[in-house]
Specification:
The chain is an alpha+beta fold and 414 residues long. The protein contains five helices and 23 strands. The longest helix has 39 residues.
Length: 414
């Protein structure tokens, strides 16, 4: 028992040493990186719904915490403070909802700002500084939309967009690396995300870019007179088929394998789920959105309906009109206006591995037999009785008036 306590103490001491070393190493980076005398903004671009991280690349050595500021437009009077002034804001990314306010979608870790599920309105200037208003470093963040994204299926001989050359600027797409294959052991798909970029000698000099005279299309470095023409080009995604082998699975121990074989021979082998299962019960004509656990828009994610592969070439949003079942560009599976035939088990793959299952049942409420004492039945019978009495009254009034008129005529003639 004493040896175990000693080992635990040594392990905790090593963890403390490693954490101190990480902080000290971070401090060395700040010592080596001098803050610019004139604040400039580094351009970065992302696709909507992605999560991005902005490191505070420089700060004075004596500053123990940083404050992050967000400005939609430079020198704007509307500034959002993204901190609790202690640099300890932590947000659970699994609880972040798309479309929520920026103040509910950020976190600060080791002086870096993390924004979860970025939205178009998150585009703007992000500044790292102090609570007194001294700025150390700045970013020009461009979040590009997915609503009008262009998709090219390379297996169908489709091609990505060609460059556009104007008088004062050139538009082109910068592609990220191909993602991994989204399935293993069967035919899968790969995606390659491309963002819109512009090259021009007219860019504003206060913005720093990776290449000279090149910045993302939504950057504030682009002159305002170019914006209308730049909106004609959208981000794009290229999709192609792939085939990847599955990793070798761990073989059960000899005793466990023997017991499993005996049960199988007796015909009583239990059907254990291969992946964690979620259960959804939905009423008909409702909508359901399924999210693959732990997946982000930049991940390779695939969906199956039972044994049917839901390939993007047929089920990606926008491929066909009036789609009830489709996959959006954030890797979510949408089922709209649910019907009885939508009842199935849906599986999701993440980075080539089957990770979760969703068992969906469409419930139809049985018709309830009403008794004569139900309030609804009493109301209906009362309404029918009153209506019937009114009709009978009108009928007698009509006949009474006709009889009275005939009697009056006979009296007048006599």
């Amino acid at each position: 028992m004493g040896m175990k306590l000693l080992g635990a103490t040594i392990l905790l001491s090593l963890v403390d040493v490693l954490q101190a070393f990480a902080i000290e190493k971070k401090g060395d980076v700040f010592k080596k990186t001098a803050c610019p005398a004139f604040l400039i903004f580094e351009n970065v671009a992302y696709l909507a719904d992605m999560t991005f991280e902005l490191p505070c690349k420089c700060k004075p050595e004596e500053a123990s915490s940083v404050v992050w500021y967000f400005q939609k437009n430079l020198h704007s009077h509307e500034t959002t403070v993204l901190t609790d002034f202690n640099g300890t804001v932590i947000v659970d990314s699994s609880h972040v909802r798309a479309g929520s306010d920026l103040l509910k979608r950020f976190s600060i870790r080791l002086f870096s700002l993390i924004v979860f599920r970025a939205q178009l309105r998150d585009s703007g200037h992000y500044l790292c500084g102090t609570k007194e208003g001294l700025f150390f470093y700045g970013y020009d963040v461009d979040v590009q939309p997915t609503g009008q994204i262009t998709v090219a299926f390379l297996d169908n001989d489709q091609h990505v967009q060609e460059d556009y050359a104007g008088k004062e600027f050139t538009l082109f797409t910068t592609f990220w690396d191909w993602s991994g294959c989204d399935r293993c052991g069967v035919r899968g798909e790969q995606r390659r995300i491309g963002l819109c970029y512009v090259q021009s000698a007219r860019l504003k000099p206060r913005y720093r870019t990776a290449l000279p005279n090149v910045t993302s299309c939504g950057s504030r470095a682009v002159p305002a007179r170019f914006q209308r023409l730049i909106r004609l080009r959208s981000p794009e995604v290229a999709v192609r088929s792939c085939l990847a082998p599955c990793p070798e699975k761990r073989v059960p121990e000899e005793g466990v394998q023997s017991i499993s074989n005996i049960i199988y021979k007796l015909g009583e082998k239990p059907e254990l789920p291969r992946v964690p299962m979620q259960y959804h019960s939905q009423p008909p004509k409702s909508d359901l959105v399924l999210t693959c656990p732990g997946a982000r828009p930049e991940h390779a994610v695939a969906w199956d309906k039972g044994s049917v592969r839901l390939y993007r070439s047929h089920y990606l949003l926008g491929v066909r009109k009036h789609m009830r079942l489709f996959i959006d560009h954030g890797n979510h599976l949408h089922l709209q206006r649910l019907r009885r035939r939508d009842k199935a088990t849906y599986f999701c793959w993440r980075e080539g591995e089957l990770v979760a299952g969703f068992q969906l049942s469409v419930t139809f409420q049985p018709r309830r037999q009403r008794s004569p004492t139900d309030p609804e039945s009493v109301f209906v019978m009362r309404a029918v009785g009153i209506s019937f009495a009114i009709i009978i009254g009108i009928f007698f009034l009509i006949h009474l008036s006709r009889w009275s008129s005939q009697v009056f005529r006979k009296v007048a003639k006599s």
